[in-house]
Every structure is written in structure tokens, then in C-alpha cells.
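REQUEST ID: PR-0412
SUBMITTED BY: lab tech R.K.
PRIORITY: routine
TASK: structure prediction, single protein chain
INPUT:
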Amino acid sequence: MTRLQDQTALVTGASRGMGRAIALALVAEGAQVAATGRDVVELERLEDEIAREGGRCTSFAADLAERGAARRVFDQAIATLGHVDILVNNAAIGSSADPRAVVEFDDDFWERTLYVNLTVPYLLCKYVLPSMIERHYGRIVQIASIAGKIGTFHGAAYSASKHGLLGLTRSLAIETASLGVTVNAICPGPVHTRTNDRRIEYDARRLGKSVAEFEATLTPIGRRLEPHEIAPLAVYLASPEAAVVTGQAYNIDGGAFMA
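STATUS: complete
OUTPUT:
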């Protein structure tokens, strides 16, 4: 029997990148997944791929930057799954969307980044927790970043939001530790995604290097990570095996931040 047999999971930001890889990995371990993201075509492709493998996935498009969207996502997940055993808060706005120094920062972009990266995870946790506590079982996995532990040049909103997400994770872990619920975070380093591509291009240009030259310096292993390399830890933290692991923030970063 697979580790997540008969478990239900809600994964945000699942149309591509890490969210997609995590959704696929959860299904491979037996979970039924409700996947949400902004790209309808990519979500349909995810559903089709999972169906071909005999898995169970329902997807629905949502822009979590819209007020009220988090509640609609939760309601749709409940309508599909009945309840949520596993919540993976992956959707986020990266610094590459508008990198600037703080003195030049766009206030609307600051607000939007903190809303999507911190307030939406807070809301979704708040929505799923009552049922998890009632059933004395639940797993919450926050996809944070090593930027939640260090500063980010020209990325203050992103870094601040991920620092906040780790604070939320630890506070929730304390509140739910005796209630059968675990809350943990994964802190990836540079991962080969479309969003990170734009950040790499920006930094390479800023430093006068080629993308390939700059990319090779990002981690001690000499490359970026791939989305599928993040998924195994998410599966473990979502599993019954991780019952005694809570309030942790694990780096997966190719050795970029050894602390």
C-alpha cells in the first residue's frame, strides 16, 4: 500500500513548477488531489497526466491574488474531496515580477506579494484546521524559501513574506502539536522554474554575467534544483510517517545556505 492511500490533498500553485511536481508525487503515493493554479491549460494537462497513470486529481483555476479566492478554493476542494487531510501552500509571487530597491519599491506590489505569499496561506490554514483538529489528523506543508532565512537583494517583499510564512508555520505548529496536526515548511534554494528563470536573468544582467555563468555559481553543487527534487520531502512531511515532525523549516538548496 502506498503511503498516502485514501488521503486527500489540496495543492495551490499546481499548474507548473514545484506545485505540479508535488501534486504528481502525492498522487503517486495514493492521495486524491485537488489542484489549483492560474493556468487552465496546464491544469488540464496535469489532470490528464494523472488520469493516464490511474490517479485521482481534480483541478480548478483560481487567481489567489483576488480577495475571496482563497475561500472559493477551499469550498471547491471540500466539494471535491469531502475534507482535506493535506494542505500544500505553494502558490506565490516571486521577486522577479518587479525587482527594485526598497526606496523605489512599488507599494501595490508589496501589498500583493504579502497577500498571496502570506495572507492566503494563513487563510487556507485557518479554513482547513477545524476539520483536521476534529479528526485529530492533518498535515500542512508550506513552501517557503531560503529567502525566508536571509535577505534578498531587490526582493524585500518576497523575503519578508517568506520570513512571515516561517513565523506562521511555527506558531501553528505550537498550537496544533497535541492535536494530531503537523505544520512544516520547505525552504528551496534556486529551483529551475519559469519564475526563477526571470530572476536569474535579472541578476545575471545586473552583474554583467551570462545566465549560464551566473547559474553555475548559485549553489555549491553548481546548478539549480529541479522541481521534482523538492517533491519527496513534501511527500514525507505529508505522510503519517512524519507524525513527530512539526514546526520545522527544511532547506533544499544544493548547499547554498548551510544553517
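NOTES: The first strand starts at residue 8 and ends at 11.
REVIEWED BY: pending
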